[in-house]
Amino acid sequence: MPGERYYSDSTEYKNPPPDPVMLKFASSAGNMLGKPLVSSETFTWLGEHFKVPLSNCKPEVEQVFLAGVNHVFYHGTTYSPAAAGWPGWLFYAATEFVPNNSWWPHLPGLNDYITRCQSVLQAGRAESDVLLYWPAYDARHYAPAGKLEMLMSIHTIDQWLQPTAFYKDAQQLMKRGYAVDFVSDNLLKQTKLAGGQLHVSPQGASYRALVVPSTDFMPVETLAAIVELARQGATVVLQELPKDVPGQHELEKRRQQRRALLAELNFAPAGAGGQLATVGAGRVLLATNVQQALESLDIARETLTDSGLQIIRRAVADGRYYYLVNHTARPVDAWLTLNAAATSVLLLDPQTGQSGRAASQPAAGGTRVRVQVPPGEALILKTTTGPPPVAEAWTYLTPSGAAQPLAGPWQLKFTAGGPALPKPQQLRTLTSWPDLPDASAARFSGRAEYTTTFTLPAKPAADYLLRLGDVRESARVWINGREVGLLWSVPYERHIGAFLKKGRNELKVEVANLMANRIIDLDQRQVAWRNYHEINFVNLAYQPFDAAKWTWQPSGLLGPVTLTPCAEANP
């Protein structure tokens, strides 16, 4: 996403980056069994100590939500007595959710966002399309060269998960708009068919098809369960026929059972380059491209993912929730089709809490709705099958003129932090704190206020979009003494027309930086600050922590700050 940045680039850190597919193992179990909450320890090692801004947390928690987790807890927040001073008592986890963090007063921005999202993602039940079989015995069979064990940990997914056909199928299906849950051998054996849908438990999600990726080793009991589900009327897609059975116990007997089960599948050429077998009341399609296979079986995907948006759905009594996230570099402003018939669609903005009735219209098999989602933002859709909710129409806005720079001059006043407050300054050009003439600003971690004035043109627009540009790292904004809100993540922008007045207006921006610069100063001066019993306080590469050689982190409001007139673009 434009403007997204990470400061933790240790060359010694060898673990693969986080992967949402890994998180889906937990959420799949919760969805299949109908558990109301799937919880995650979140942000533990999001980056290096003292270098994690709130803006890094948002896309991370969005990936967690998109993977099916609907309850997060921070790792972590330590108790620290007042006498411990700054930075206080800390511990192993690298994201410091503590009152001594510079951005602590801005944390409600993240908290409110998570609260709004979780209120939706905990409603109703998970809604999925496809069960994807997890070939656990393949992963157990192939240990790394020279080793007799395979640790299925989050730090070894590049060995046991990402190289597999299972992973590639999961990625392809989710990217193309299918909601997927992973099913194990044991859970597959308890899966039932009811109303033409697969159910692992009565209270869990329902599924239209079972997809089995290319598999080397499948227990004969699992294969028997798959064939039996097909006999009952289930739809099954096999990427390949399983090649063998795992283990040595009664090997030839189990191989014979496998051959007998596969002999029941009398395949004939079918569409999508596959072969189709009718088994009892069901059907088994053998096809290498599982997405094309599902489409040929009239199992529809959510085509709105073609826009680049990522989605997850929840089913509620009178409709659906769609949670949409834009992690691309392009804004999405389009009419999108939902696979849900609806009398109306409500738009909910989890960043601001605003809501309104969307522009929507019936479409074949669903509903068309107009959405606008800038890069870095999310949007929640609530479809309704009953009477439309009482709500004002959503206002769609589009730029109606060039962005006008708010060039200053700026009054800069440091308000909270340390080790000491730098002196107030007037800035003609927005400058990073370490580059200011006052040397104390380089080692300062805390908050400062920027104030300037500007004049609206004689003919005001319908609304105005304030863009802060480069913010290091989070901001709270006031217009004419009224608080607009917290801008704590990409894209650091907000419509502010309701706060403006004719003529002269005052803009005040409070900015919080990272803790890093103050820690650099302490370590360079060899000041002891780890006044607590934590032997495992290490850096991102699990080496002894030392910030003395770090460079000063950019801090403050760097801009450019602009104001863009907007016009209503309602359909």
Task: Walk me through what this model shows.
- A hairpin with a 6-residue loop joins strand 24 (410-418) and strand 25 (425-427).
- With 571 residues, the chain is of the alpha+beta class.
- The protein is 19% helix and 29% strand.
- It has a 7-stranded mixed beta sheet, sandwiched between helices.
- The mean pLDDT is 94.
- The protein folds into 4 domains: 20-122, no CATH class; 130-286, no CATH class; 303-394, Immunoglobulin-like (Sandwich); 404-514 and 553-568, Galactose-binding domain-like (Jelly Rolls, Sandwich), CATH 2.60.120.260.
- It starts with 19 loop residues before the first helix and ends with a strand.
- It is globular.
- Helix 2 runs parallel beside helix 3 and helix 8 packs parallel to helix 9.
Helix share bin: 10-25%
Mean pLDDT figure: 94
Whole-number total of structural domains: 4
- What low-confidence regions span 5 or more consecutive residues with pLDDT below 50? none
Instruction: Give the count of helical stretches.
Output: 11
Say what oligomer this is. single chain
Q: Give me the secondary-structure category.
A: alpha+beta
Main β-sheet: number of strands, strand sense, barrel status? 7 strands, mixed
Shape, per Cα inertia axes? globular
Estimate the strand proportion: 25-35%
Measured between the Cα atoms of the first and last residue, the distance is 28 Å
Number of strands: 34
Taking all Cα atoms into account, the compactness measure Rg is 27 Å
**Strand numbers in spatial order across the main sheet:** 5-4-9-10-13-12-11
